Each structure stands twice: as C-alpha cells, then as structure tokens.
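#struct-pred

JT: dropping the chains for the assembly here, can someone run the whole complex?
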Amino acid sequence: MSLRPRILVILGPTATGKTGLATEVARLVDGEIISADSRQAYRGLEIGTAAPGPEHRLSIPHHGVAFLEPGERYGAGRFARMCRGWVSDIESRGRVPIVAGGTGFFMRALTRPVFREPELDAGRRSSLEAWLASQPIAEVRRWTDRLDPDLRSRLPVVDRQRGGRALELALLTGRNLTWWQGHAPPEAEPMPARTWVLEIDAETLRQRIEERTRRQLDAGWLDEVEALAAGGHGPGSPAMTSIGYREVWRLASGEISREAAVAAIVRDTWRYARRQRTWLRHQVADDAIRVDAPEDVRALAETIAADWRRLADRSEPPRGL
RNA sequence: GGCGUCGUGGCCGAGUGGCUAGGCAGGGGCCUGCAAAGCCCCCUACUCCGGUUCGAAUCCGGACGACGCCU
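RK: done, full complex below.
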C-alpha cells in the first residue's frame, strides 16, 4: 500500500464477531466506529440485524447505525458519501475511523469509488421502474442488448435488477451504463485503507448463527416486528426484506412454530454468509489481511491495534504523487 | 415360517421399456447506487444378481433389506 491508510477496515461474514472486535480495537487505538451495513442503518431493526447495542455504543461512538427510517432509500453511493463525512469528522477529532461491516459492496464504494451519477428525474425513474417490473426478463435483456451491447461482457447473465439499472441510465441520461462506468470520473478519491478480513470454518459459523438467532428471539425480536408493523412497516415493506423478519412475522401471527422459524432463519443467514464469503474471497483488495475469527477477541484486537500504530507512525508520504 | 406391499442421488419425491423430472439440503461462482438484494453453474440416482429385449429404474426370476398382516 502506497498511501498511509486513513481508515481501519474490518470485514467478515455475518456472526463472526466484527462488532465485538471493532469495539475492542476502537478502545485500543482511540477510535470511532462506522458501520458498513446496509440493514443496521435502519432504526427499529436493531435486534433482528444484530446491530451494535448500548453496551458498545455507550463506550465508543458509532456512526451509520439506526439513523434511517425504514423505507428510506439507502445504497452504496449514499453510504460512501456519508462515510467520507464521518471519516473526516473523526479525523478532525484526532481519532481513528474504524469501518466495520458485512456489506462488502458498500465498503468497496469507499475504497474504489463509483462514478459520479447525474441527477435522475425521479418521476421518469419511477415510471420506468414500474414498466420494468411488468416486463418479462427476456424483454429486459432485449433492451439492454440494444442499448448497452457491451454490458454482457461484464455481466454474462443480465438479471432484472442490473438490467433495470442499465436501462435506467441509458434511457434517462442518454449514455449507457458502460459509458458511465468507463468515462465518468469517480465521485471521490479512493480511500486508503488497512483491511482485515475475518474468516471462519463452516461448522463454527453455523453454530454461531444458530445461537445468535435464538438470542435475538429471546431479546425481543417479536416485539420489534410488532412495533414495525404498528409503524406501518408490515410484511410488504422494504425493511421487512431483511433476513428473518418474514419468519418472525409469521411466528408472531402463530403461522409457524418457534423451531420452524429458527430453522428458516438459520438457513437464510447461512446462505447470506456463504455469499459474503464468496464476495470476500474475490472482491477485496489483495493487500487485505485474512485472519481466523478468534474466540479470544482481545488478542486479535491487540494485533490489529499494534499494526495500525506501526502504520500511523510512519511518516506520511507526500500527497499527490 | 406363510402371504402381501415396497426398495430411486444426503433427504423428500415423480417416473411403468428408449428422450437429464422436480424440490430441499450441500458446493462453486457473478457483482460500479435495491447488495441481509438480484442472479448463474455444479451435485445425473434408481438395493444386488441373473434373464427377456436392439434397448430396463421401468418387464420376469432369484437374493437381500424394510414395513404390514397371518400362523
């Protein structure tokens, strides 16, 4: 890594202990924590998303947790912009920004920023979305092939979500996605980072997921779902697409048993963790340091903190080279 | 001991002579503003042994196993 890192990054699949580790490291290096998690960002989903609780947030300042209303739009771009602000603020306090989370895509929007997106007309955008939703996937592909012929070299199988994105840009900006990605300048400088990736064997992870699921239910997940419903966020709401919420909803309404709910939630969480592992295997910078998720968080935290101090002590190379 | 039913991949489960069922579980992979999302690929089995047939998971015989009923 050529530049001195500005942020300390902790990545890993869900339920590997990122929260505890980040808190411990923050204590050691006088840091503040930024959550790179697409779901913990929402208010009212703290239990089901295993967001850092009061025991963490009271001792260490956290950013990016429980600050959005369910239903608000979040995304990699918005995360990255907000995150840059938090990083600057933390630095201005003379503290260390620690970015921890499981949403690898968000993290990458920070270390490898996306292009600066033009204003998209909200009205045209939503009517296009509605049209897309009504079309069979073959039709979506026909249009992406026509409007963005090079897309398929990067996306062998165009799915509805990405096809929609490609068409949105092509139709609303007059330039297709391939053009934007190739020619539009990134919206910010890459954020130099020292990245740690937690790894864990399947058996242990499975076990942790199941234990955590039961703990979440004991901690009042049912109440959380009922509160969401009372606030107008029923099973159809975007917030409820987070893992487990549908099952807890059905558990609350007596449709399924507690054990059935646990089994389904564990399965879905496991699938998610697998996707995360695949992502982390291939999409993370080569200079990331991969370590086993330890039972003893403290020792690893010491290692990470020592490494950070070593990097921070090096004289900063001249900027702009 | 006799009679009957059945024996399909890790599990569930269709298939009654030729043409990869399917689902679940498991594994691998993709990824530039929905990422806890969206999507792709892999896992080709018929209990065993004979026989019939150009060809058998599918028909016939036997063995073994499971279940049920009877003695």
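JT: nice. The mean pLDDT of chain A is 91. The longest helix of chain A spans residues 258-282.
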